[in-house]
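Journal club prep, shared notes

We agreed each person brings one worked example of a sequence with its structure written out as tokens. Mine is Transcriptional regulator. I'm keeping it raw so we can talk through how to read the token line rather than staring at a rendered picture. Sequence first:
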Amino acid sequence: MHISNKCSIAVHCLVFLSEYGEREKVTSELLSCSTGCNPVTIRNILSALKKGEIITVKPGTGGAELALPPEKIDLYRICSVVDPEAIDKMIGIHHSPSPFCPVGRNIGNVLGKTYDTLKNNLIASMKTITLEQILADYHEVLAEEKNKKS
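Then the structure, token by token:
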């Protein structure tokens, strides 16, 4: 089970925006360099984050900023905005079981309730993780990195 790459890239962009968005103009090209992703991919993710009212993007020459304080942005919101099917991709039933086999014919109904419980628990857990916490983890890693160099 893994979180969609789009979700990880979106979190990366939001951490970058939080760190640098007030001091400099953050563009898709700059985020592309930081993430190692194509600028078109970044623009698509930024567009989804804007539609989800997580960021604002200045018209014209661009530049993105957080639209909400980090404590108001949770991981589920980020992921569901950039990849609405992320949870279903993580916890899903295979698509082509045999209709001729009793197990194959019924496995979707058997697992459906269990998987719905898993999805609901995952969503609830993701809603408890905020960008604020992710930024705290980022700053902790930076401090550890600095201490290793000293």
